[in-house]
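Materials and Methods. Structural model of Citryl-CoA lyase beta subunit-like protein. The 270-residue sequence of Citryl-CoA lyase beta subunit-like protein from Sulfolobus acidocaldarius was retrieved and submitted for structure prediction as follows.
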Amino acid sequence: MIRRSQLYVPSISEKMIRKSIELKADSIVFDLEDAVPPEDKEKARELLVKLINELEWGKRELCVRMNSLQLVDAYRDIVTISRIDKISCIVVPKAEGDLSFLHKATGKDLIPLIETGKGLIRVEDIVRSEGVVGVSYGIADLSLSVGGDYNFYEKNEFVKTYVVTTAKAYDVDPIDKVYFDLKNVDGFRRECEEAKKLGFVGKQVIHPTQVEIANQVFSPTAEEIEWARRVIEAYDNAKREGRGAIRLDDKLVDYVHYKIAKRILEFQNL
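The predicted structure was written out as tokens:
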């Protein structure tokens, strides 16, 4: 499963749910949390059951962002999600501890969101939970949680690095945060490029125009693919000769580079 673009869609909007079929997002997150007013939660659940079962979605990943586990609505969400076979994943807002129980109860994959101070200091416990396949974070909620300034936290490299390194340590997908300035296309692309350099595999997006950019940035470039092919060929030849490290373009290439090259080509073939 690749998650270059993970698109949020309000579960209360039939028009937007139907429109999302036409978009090329790798993953779609039907939102029952922030995008749905409290008085419309039950209506949104009913609409979600109807449309997800009715429509054809292809091979893309379908997720639901449930309400916070601290709220009664969360448990109503769990019952609804469990009834929809086409939903393979639950996005868990404000995750703050072991989520294994949720995977065991629903059989669904989990993508927790780190959005509180408690969640940030417990991110390792969270990503180690049974069923977790990815992790992301929310800067607006996190900055509110700790009484900080949103604009400052939006650029906070510690949070980004902590999330991505913990995710990679436990072999789950780190997915970069939402970018709210919909008019700033260059800013969105720049943030995607910076996230890729840090090790994120994709971006959570909130508008169709962001999908194509995220897919482009988080896909291997032609240069990366060519490099990967050359590394694999050279390293395989060296292995047959009993060598574990080689020189390619005046640079040392060893098993770490070989694994990176393999991952690039595997990604291309998905």
